[in-house]
Specification:
Blueprint (H helix, E strand, L loop, with lengths): L6 H18 L4 H17 L4
Length: 49
């Protein structure tokens, strides 16, 4: 079985990781949300291929 991860799979993976980090360390919520938003913007603008 061959699994290929593309740019379309990156956003849900980043979201899942951010959610888990918020559950583990809620005091870092501001930083996690900021990093998530920055990564979402970079992915959305197409800077990552």
């Amino acid at each position: 079985m061959h699994v290929t991860l593309g740019i379309t799979h990156l956003q849900p993976i980043v979201s899942l990781a951010a959610g888990v980090l918020i559950l583990i360390a809620p005091r870092f919520l501001n930083y996690i949300v900021a990093i998530f938003l920055i990564l979402s913007g970079i992915i959305g603008l197409g800077f990552v291929r």
